[in-house]
Amino acid sequence: MTVRLPLFPLNSVLFPGLVLPLNVFEERYRAMMRELLKSPEEEPRRFAVVAIRDGHEVAPSAPGMPDPTALPERGPAAGFGPDPVKAFHGVGCVADAATIRERADGTFEVLATGTTRVRLVSVDASGPFLTAELQELPEEPGDEAGALAEGVLRAFRQYQKRLAGARERSLSTAADLPDQPSVVSYLVAAAMVLDTPTKQRLLQAPDTASRLRDELKLLRAETSIIRTLPSLPASDLTRGPTNPN
To answer: 89: closest CA among 126, 49, 125?
Structure first.
């Protein structure tokens, strides 16, 4: 079964259960938010987030380089090439917008939460904003997910301590961390300082246990690296900015 939803490409990966703040200023995404606001408040205002593989999150709005006379791209697929589906990673996440607030200048402040993983089937650029046909992906537990989650939580606490520095408090206490394996896997994937391809690999893992196994290896490797680089100002990397669009 597939669903069709507005598509919001970003230079980052959204995971189920994670909060996504957005500052929406491009016209194509303003149009998307205006359309979502037409839905009754009691209904979910959903759109899909996919990570960009090859393209630009914000379309050029000034003469291009190296040709200063080149006109900027326009339209819903601007910055994503002639075949937008090739510009995006194949697995994304549905976002449920809890807050969509329009500012006086016509831009929007949006606060959404990731809900369900989806596979990108096709992209339609015929309207004012991109829409996509999407296949929902179930989250299978896999083998030994519970035991793996416990190991990942232990490794994650060590990673946090190293990342924050010996003189700083840990970023979370045991009470702050969940114990449901799938929730653990997504929280750790989002919280680790990793590049987009690695986060994308974690998002599209075939099951929770596979994701947790991958995270355990990554946590041990990253903790070892941080241990050998005591001067790394890694605490600054834990404070992620709001997505610009």
So the answer is: 49
Domain spanning 145-228, CATH class:
mainly alpha
Query: CB-based contacts of 93: which residues, under 8 Å, 6+ apart?
Result: 13, 14, 15, 16, 48, 49, 114, 115, 116, 117, 118, 203
| Strand ranges inside 73-187, DSSP E | 91-102, 108-124, 131-136
Structure tokens at 131: 């829409």
What CATH fold (topology level) applies to the domain 2-56+69-136?
2.30.130
CA distance to 48, 136, 179, 195, 229, per residue, from 223 (Å): 33, 34, 22, 16, 10
Where along the chain do its domains lie?
A: 2-56+69-136, 145-228
Q: Using only C-alpha atoms, what is the Rg of the chain? A: 19
Mean pLDDT of the chain: 85
Note if the pTM is more than 0.70: yes
* Local confidence band at 236 (pLDDT 50, 70, 90 cut-offs): very low
How many CA atoms are closer than 13 Å to the CA of 136, on its beta-carbon side? 13
β partners of residue 118: 92, 136
